[in-house]
Each structure stands twice: as structure tokens, then as C-alpha cells.
């Protein structure tokens, strides 16, 4: 199977721009924009750069309104604190807020989110208790 070269990718993208009439949208995603060749992301080729960050409390509030039709709940304070501690994508939050069973209400969905955030925080804290020593992970007691 052949490899895609930078030159081939640039020719492909430029060919799309020149061959298509009217409006065109090309979506390119990466987890490492800093590793992309500047020729690929220059103006005129990639005009709009959007960083998709982790979920903050404001975004959570938007998702809670859309998925659960709720603007306030006693668990919101827990969610706020945990979101400051844990990196989670809005897509993961949305999935956790989506009712899975007929009996699920906003309380059970929010409780599931809080539980998942607490598990992620515990895993993050457990990882931070390890240190790198000559390339090896060592458990610190």
C-alpha cells in the first residue's frame, strides 16, 4: 500500500479547490497541530483553525440544558469542581448525560457523570503518584 506524501496531500487539496465550483469546505482534524507542516496550514489552504478544548462548566451547562432540560441541580457544584480537575471532552459529557434507560432522569444522569468524573480524577491522582526514573515508572508510597 502506498504512503501519502506531503506533496501528494497538498496537490490533492489544491486540486479540490481548483476543480470545485461554488462553496467548498474541507475539514481536517489533528491532535497535534504543532507537528503539521506550515505549507499544509497556511492561509488560503486552511483558513479557519478551531481548537476543540476540554469541557468547562459553561459548556457543561449548555449540554445539561440541551440533554436534560435542567439549568440547576444540587450535583452541579460537584460537576463544577471535578471539571476543574479532570480533562473530559464535551462529547464524553454529552454521552454521559444521555439517558440510557426509560427510567433515567436528570438526577441519575448527573450522578453517572459525577461518578465518571470522580473515577477519572482518582485515576489521574494515582498516575501523578508515579514518577519517571530513567524511563521507568516507579510507584511512590
Automatic annotation (TrEMBL):
<dbReference type="Pfam" id="PF25568">
    <property type="entry name" value="AAA_lid_At3g28540"/>
</dbReference>
<dbReference type="Pfam" id="PF00004">
    <property type="entry name" value="AAA"/>
</dbReference>
<protein>
    <submittedName>
        <fullName>Uncharacterized protein</fullName>
    </submittedName>
</protein>
<keyword id="KW-0547">Nucleotide-binding</keyword>
<dbReference type="InterPro" id="IPR003960">
    <property type="entry name" value="ATPase_AAA_CS"/>
</dbReference>
<keyword id="KW-0067">ATP-binding</keyword>
<dbReference type="GO" id="GO:0016887">
    <property type="term" value="F:ATP hydrolysis activity"/>
</dbReference>
<dbReference type="InterPro" id="IPR050747">
    <property type="entry name" value="Mitochondrial_chaperone_BCS1"/>
</dbReference>
<feature type="signal peptide">
    <location>
        <begin position="1"/>
        <end position="18"/>
    </location>
</feature>
<keyword id="KW-0732">Signal</keyword>
<comment type="similarity">
    <text>Belongs to the AAA ATPase family.</text>
</comment>
<dbReference type="InterPro" id="IPR003959">
    <property type="entry name" value="ATPase_AAA_core"/>
</dbReference>
<dbReference type="InterPro" id="IPR058017">
    <property type="entry name" value="At3g28540-like_C"/>
</dbReference>
<feature type="domain" description="ATPase AAA-type core">
    <location>
        <begin position="3"/>
        <end position="53"/>
    </location>
</feature>
<dbReference type="InterPro" id="IPR027417">
    <property type="entry name" value="P-loop_NTPase"/>
</dbReference>
<dbReference type="GO" id="GO:0005524">
    <property type="term" value="F:ATP binding"/>
</dbReference>
<feature type="domain" description="AAA+ ATPase At3g28540-like C-terminal">
    <location>
        <begin position="55"/>
        <end position="127"/>
    </location>
</feature>
Amino acid at each position: 500500500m502506498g504512503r501519502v506524501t506531503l506533496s501528494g496531500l497538498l496537490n490533492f487539496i489544491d486540486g479540490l479547490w481548483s476543480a470545485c465550483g461554488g462553496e467548498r469546505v474541507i475539514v481536517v482534524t489533528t491532535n497535534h497541530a504543532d507537528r503539521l507542516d506550515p505549507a499544509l496550514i497556511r492561509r488560503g489552504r486552511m483558513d479557519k483553525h478551531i481548537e476543540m478544548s476540554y469541557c468547562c462548566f459553561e459548556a457543561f451547562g449548555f449540554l445539561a440544558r440541551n440533554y436534560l432540560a435542567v439549568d440547576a441541580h444540587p450535583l452541579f457544584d460537584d460537576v463544577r469542581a471535578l471539571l476543574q480537575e479532570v480533562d473530559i471532552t464535551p462529547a464524553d459529557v454529552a454521552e454521559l448525560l444521555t439517558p440510557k434507560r426509560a427510567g433515567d432522569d436528570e438526577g441519575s444522569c448527573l450522578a453517572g457523570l459525577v461518578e465518571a468524573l470522580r473515577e477519572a480524577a482518582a485515576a489521574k491522582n494515582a498516575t501523578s503518584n508515579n514518577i519517571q526514573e530513567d524511563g521507568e515508572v516507579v510507584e511512590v508510597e
